[in-house]
Amino acid sequence: MLEIECPSVTPEAVLKASGHVDKFTDLMVKDDKTGTCFRADHLLRDYCNDKLEKDHLTISAEQASELKNVLALLEDLSCQELGLKIKEYGITAPHTKNPLSDPYPFNLMFQTSIGPSGQSPGYMRPETAQGIFVNFRDLYYYNGKKLPFAAAQVGQAFRNEISPRQGPLRVREFTLAEIEHFVDPENKSHPKFSNVAELEFLMFPREAQLSGQSAKKICLGEAVAKGTINNETLGYFIGRVYLFLTKIGIDKNRLRFRQHLANEMAHYAADCWDAEIEASYGWIECVGIADRSAYDLQAHSEKSGVALVAEEKFAEPKEVEQLVITPVKKDLGIAFKGDHKKVVESLEAMKEQEAMAMKATLESKGEVEFYVCTLGKNVTIKKNMVSISKERTKVHQRVFTPSVIEPSFGIGRIMYCLSEHSFSTRPGKAGDEQLGLLSFSPLVAPMKCMVFPLVQNQQFEEGAKVISESLTSIRISHKIDMTGTSIGKRYARSDELGVPFAITVDSDTSVTIRERDSKDQVRVSLKEAASVLSSVAEGKMTWQDVWASFPHHSSE
Amino acid sequence: MLEIECPSVTPEAVLKASGHVDKFTDLMVKDDKTGTCFRADHLLRDYCNDKLEKDHLTISAEQASELKNVLALLEDLSCQELGLKIKEYGITAPHTKNPLSDPYPFNLMFQTSIGPSGQSPGYMRPETAQGIFVNFRDLYYYNGKKLPFAAAQVGQAFRNEISPRQGPLRVREFTLAEIEHFVDPENKSHPKFSNVAELEFLMFPREAQLSGQSAKKICLGEAVAKGTINNETLGYFIGRVYLFLTKIGIDKNRLRFRQHLANEMAHYAADCWDAEIEASYGWIECVGIADRSAYDLQAHSEKSGVALVAEEKFAEPKEVEQLVITPVKKDLGIAFKGDHKKVVESLEAMKEQEAMAMKATLESKGEVEFYVCTLGKNVTIKKNMVSISKERTKVHQRVFTPSVIEPSFGIGRIMYCLSEHSFSTRPGKAGDEQLGLLSFSPLVAPMKCMVFPLVQNQQFEEGAKVISESLTSIRISHKIDMTGTSIGKRYARSDELGVPFAITVDSDTSVTIRERDSKDQVRVSLKEAASVLSSVAEGKMTWQDVWASFPHHSSE
After folding, report:
1. Integer CA distances (angstroms), B424 to A494, B412, B427, B435, B446, in order
2. DSSP label at A168?
3. Positions of chain B with pLDDT under 70
4. Among A16, A71, A12, which Cα is nearest to A44's?
5. pTM for this one?
6. How buried is residue B423: exposed, middle or buried, by Cβ count under 10 Å (0-12/13-18/19+)?
């Protein structure tokens, strides 16, 4: 997988081509008097839910069914329909009860201006994917012009939410990790699919949602074989996302893969699944895995006039009837000088219909006006500048726009859910107290180890420093706590912070290593302590191995 | 060191407090007819340099000395002075030769608007440091309220440069890595200074610059002892920056530490040094290491009304005359309800002069108007709400604003210089060709290893896949090249990309490992190949160790 880092500030042309400038909007209403802004769909949803919950005894069955219907269709309502519903139900601004404006689209991108002139609008990227698409030609070249391949980007994305809420779940700036896997649309098999085909986990296909069933365990291989999941590559990434999430510590019983309904999916998407994790806010969309077909590359290709395509070389040449566009570079060079390369690229990028129309005009009138989008203007093409024909020729390759399969990870949401799934409490020694426990696996715990001198004395503190230096040299994150706080309290504190291990220096020559979840302890020599800790923190040994290899003491 | 990640989109209040909204500007002139923008100081500098170079035979000694003087003072010229010089010299717009506007300040921050109301201006952060300062109170708490400690942030910074130039050296979006090390202003010693005190490297102190000398090798310990470098902690970070840069591969003969002249430094800074690296564009400022004193924390404290201070507990209480401000929380709570906490904090943050003035007014008039900046409005404080006095009391602690020492790394600039310092050419086999060589050390090379089947056959390709899987499992970045290109060309290609090692699969049971710089080769069994590679790539073994341990073949 190729890694790439693109700028956050993005020129308008890129986000115009991707559709974000025109369509990345939420419908907003304003409090007529205070000017406070609200998301129109949220107000309507809250109204319907409230009514169904609080007034269920007073409303008729028909009214209830109408409200449920509105909730089901919420995402499909047009601006006008939303406005009519808000009027019909007499919904007013929360708190003030003032009347509301009509809904209108509010673009969620942060706008800015690039350069000193004030003439170049730009936006903070709303996702990291577009940077990969506009760099497709270079990435394809770096990959030796071979498909399939993927490029990935981890970085900040920016959405000027109307109402940020739910802690880290809906924020205006967040970390996205996106993979764009480019694949031949005629062959979406995946060579490593067999590695994940036997996985079984909770899936919630479209049909199950529409028929009121719940998510159920399905074998990934079967889901692909039956066509529930559109293709092998999409299935492969769904499997890898499942493995990733469960490996970092997400509870597999509170993780499901939900397929988008037809009305949720963009018209061009072939199939789309969300990894949803259950937490206190409900089922939270944390990873989207979509087959976006050739849409993105085609959109940028059309607006930029730069072909974003791949080639398949044939073993044997094939004879086909083909559109042949041959710009006459010499004549174009004389006519357009420095601009001629852009004219050539635009001529070559013409689709069949446009090219044949140009051919006809050139034959009848001898010249034609031609819009070159990379120049932003019309140029006059004369008959001598280009030859266009349809010929039966031997072709040695197929040229096509790759499909893209996109797993997109909301890192903050995953971290939030992981924290909830990892948190529990257990009784303290006093009996009536409950102590917090954050069971981060050593793999994900930001801090792998605490180092505690048992009591404040020079000898133990020296030992702690020696161990800390060894841990630093082998890059194990840790912290020394030299405070005189009782060892029990220091353990409780580090359990609550999710630190999986503690090394307590309680002699000249040896130390105690304590594991957080079992509270079990082993005795290891001072010299070996850092290397044992690194083995168990990096997964080369399990805690059971350590337990079996050293003198130990159970907490039970 | 605590790591922190703050948002890029920053509310105006933060950057108003830091001074960026008012002062983070460059002086700009516009072409009167086309509107094209230029940096005023760049035009004046180019004019002077041009004149000195091209017309040195025709201008008088006085004129030459005047031009040199302008160049020396360039950074100190006011907006008006710059404008007068441009007029005096008759400087016109490059290319068009049109007249220029008067210079005016252009703020280099990208501006945007936060939220849907349009009422909350924000800016893309021009540096990562401010996020650390505004979070000082929490960071200090996380560090157990102990000084010294440091917080670090790696992330994007944004500057809307008037004219980006010189490849990656002056761009509008770039990666900064900043450390803010907070220290007691009365004790800037550093416990680990002795680890770096004996380093000797090129320094260019202020006096040497002013007296026309060049940079020379100075021992770090002596530079601190003589006061050339202001204090031990600043010296410690200078030493660590030197070790870092040379370890990643910067040539120590093209690296110098240049002290800021008095006119380059902010008025509050105690001392400031730049790590400058020589490359084809000249000496490039890549890391700044500054003692910014207490300026930043005080600025945010004053504007926010939140005390950003540290405490030193005394072993024995001391008797001093002290300002005592005691807000009466009960009465304030009744008067200001939900706001009362902010009022309390603002009262407690008053300086002596303000507090004594309030005391006088309360005594004479019984109440006083008081501006609470965190509320953005005046409140009326009555006599019963606060008691203010100066008392001789025993104090148990000293409260002070920490000084901050800031090493700030321009990652793109460092990477650019590293690429230049690592690049060389050497003759190919043909004799008349020169092959590129990028000598990235295994530590920094993004790709550690290439895996080559010697020729295209199934057996070697299988072996290559086995090795690739082993390398993946131990997280060694690598790439297989299965093309039929000759092995010599594949080596040349990977040398040019800076890949330090290649594994060539040329038998069923063993492989050749080749080192890039020496071109030397060793034979290793197929089974051992990945682990040998990982040892040498991660620095556990040197290439000399590998060479001595296996059958080998020199390229000579």
Report:
1. 51, 20, 11, 8, 18
2. G
3. 556
4. A71
5. 0.85
6. middle
